Amino acid sequence: MKAYTHGGDILTAKMGFQGEIVDFSANLNPLGMPESVRRAAAAAVKGAVHYPDPLCRVLTEGIARRDGVEREWVLCGNGAADLIFRLAFALRPKRALVTAPTFSEYQEAMEAAGSEVVYHRLTPDNDFNLTDAVLEDLDGRLEMAFFCTPNNPTGQPIARGLMERILERCAGRGIRLVVDECFLALSDSGESGGLAGYVKSYPNLLLLRAFTKCYAMPGLRLGYCITSDTGLLDRLSRCAQPWSVSAPAQAAGVAALQEPLHPLLARQLIEVERRWLTGELTGLGLRVFPSAANYLLFQRAGVTDLRERLLKRGILIRSCANYVGLTEDYYRIAIRLRGENERLVRALKEVL
Fold first, then answer.
1. Can you give the pTM of this predicted structure?
2. What pLDDT score was predicted for residue 14?
3. Class of the CATH domain delimited by 10-33+261-351
4. Could you tell me where the DSSP H helices lie in 257-337?
5. 169-184 per-position pLDDT tens digit
6. CATH topology classification for 35-256
7. I need a labelling partner for 114 at 20 to 30 A (CA). Which of 94, 241, 269, 336 fits?
8. Per the database record, which ranges form the Aminotransferase class I/classII large domain (predicted)?
C-alpha cells in the first residue's frame, strides 16, 4: 500500500502522543471553517438518502460567477488531487515537467499514468525562487508542465511577468500548462494574483483551485479546475466516477462562496503572524525561507528528527524529507493563531 506522506495525519500522530495535538502540518486557514459552511454541510446530510448532483450545477454556477469565467469552463472534483490524477490518466503525456521541490502528487499522478517526469530544480541559494531559467526546460519534448503558485512547500509565488512568459512559451510549443492556485486565496496577493483572466486566451492553460485550504474543510474534499478547453473537461469527466463530489461537500462549497471575507480576514492575520514567527524561528538559529503564503519552510542543518521531538510535546509539523530537492533537515509549518504559534516556539526552544 502506498505510504501516506502528506500533512494532517492526526490519527498516526495520536499514537505517539496521547494529549491534545496542535497541527502545524496542514496548511489551512487559521480561522478555521466558517460556521455557515459547517451548518450547510451538516444540513446536507439529511438529504444523503438521495444521490448528489453529478454535475454540481449550483456549485459550478457559483464558482464561475465568483471567479469571472464561463460556467462551461469549470469542473468540480473530490479535491484538487482528484483532478490531478484525472488529468494524468485522461491525457497520459509521454513527458511532463515539474519543479523540485513542489507538491508530490504531480509526480505521483504522472508516474502512475506511465509518464516520464523531468524536474526543474529550485535552489536554496535563490530561496527556491522560480527564474527565467525554467524557460529553457520548456522545450518541444514536453507535453505537460506543472507549476504551483505560491509553491508548496516554499511559499514562493511566481512573478507575473515570468508567468506570462511561461504561458507564451507553452502555448507556442504545444505544452499543456497546469497551474495550481490552491493556496492563492491565503497568499499576500489574494486571488487577484491568479490567472483566471488568461484562460480564454490560452486554451492550453488549466488552473487548479480548492476550497480545502482557504475554508479549512479538507475532510469534505472539494476542488475544481478551470480551462476554456471544454473538450479536455469532457475527457476529465469521463475519467471519474459519476458522483465524485458528495452532497455535503457541494453544500459546503455553495455556503463558502457566500463568505468572501473569510480568506481576506485570514490573510491579514497570516501576514502579521508570519512576520512574527519568522523572527522567532530565525532567533532560534533556524534558516527560514521567505514566504508569501500561510506556511513557512525552514531548515535546521543536520537535525533530522525535529518532527519526532516536537510530537512528544503535542506539536505536529511537516517533515519535508520526501520532497524531491529537499533533505531530511527541512520542515514546513502552517501559520496559526498567536497562542498556538507561541506554543510552537516554546516547544522549539525546549527541543533545540
1. 0.96
2. 83
3. alpha beta
4. 261-283, 306-311
5. 999 999 999 999 999 9
6. Aspartate Aminotransferase; domain 2 (3.40.640)
7. 241
8. 21-348
